[in-house]
Amino acid sequence: MSTLHVNGHEHTVDVAPDTPILWALRDTLGMTGTKFGCGAALCGACTVHLDGQAIRSCVTPILVAQGKQITTTEATTDGSDKVGAIVHAAWVKYDVAQCGYCQSDQIISATAFLKSLPRGRQPTVVDAETGRARFHEISSSAYVFQQSSVAPLANTLRLYVQISKIAP
Predict the structure, then answer these.
(1) Number of domains composing the chain
(2) DSSP-assigned beta bridge partners for residue 43
(3) Fewer Cβ atoms within 10 Å of its own Cβ: the N or the C terminal residue of the chain?
(4) pLDDT for residue 122 is more than 70
């Protein structure tokens, strides 16, 4: 038995300590917003925050998460992650999504990116490109970086700043 702290709630799971966080979330807790993609930490579909850092849950065992806070994409839709909720709203407003499968990764990675910026600093498109590299190629196959323009992400970042003055 292990205790996981997910989106501000404590959960007891009966899985082996080497079970990837992804499977504890999806199979045991029924939280299916975090997706399985490649199983090798390459695609990012399984990204969650572990104490605020974007990590790949498909290769990270629950043992590593003991005593730490896991934040999933569900926190961006239920409002428990204020920054994530703003990013999610901007994603919808500016039609950033393409097929949708990797959107949970993109939103959770963008949220970690925004939270990593110095307090009071407005994000720029250059920051977005830097953030993309810093967070394991956040959207390497996604619309916002595949197209010649990064306008949708820039709009998302601008909306974030406009809607909220909360410190990242």
Answers:
(1) 2
(2) none
(3) N
(4) no
CATH number at residue 85: 1.10.150
Identify whether residues 94 and 157 lie together within a single domain. yes
> Does the residue 168 lie in any domain?
no
Same domain, 82 and 127: yes
| Nearest C-alpha neighbor of 125 from the set 154, 100, 160, 152 | 154
Q: Tokens representing 54? A: 């974007």
| 81, 156: one domain | yes
Three-state SS string over 43-56 comes to: CCCCEEEECCEEEE
Top-confidence residue, 88 or 50: 50
Domain span holding position 50? 2-72
Q: 152, 94 in Cβ contact below 8 A?
A: yes
Angstrom CA distances, 115 to 21, 119, 125, stand at 22, 9, 16
Residues 61 and 112 in one domain: no
What pLDDT shows up at residue 42?
83
Average pLDDT over every residue of 37-48: 88
- pLDDT at position 125, please? 56
Tell me the pLDDT band of 72, cut-offs 50, 70 and 90: very high
Q: How does strand 53-56 pair with strand 47-50?
A: antiparallel
Quick check: pTM over 0.85?
no
Of 42, 72, 102, which residue sits at a domain end? 72
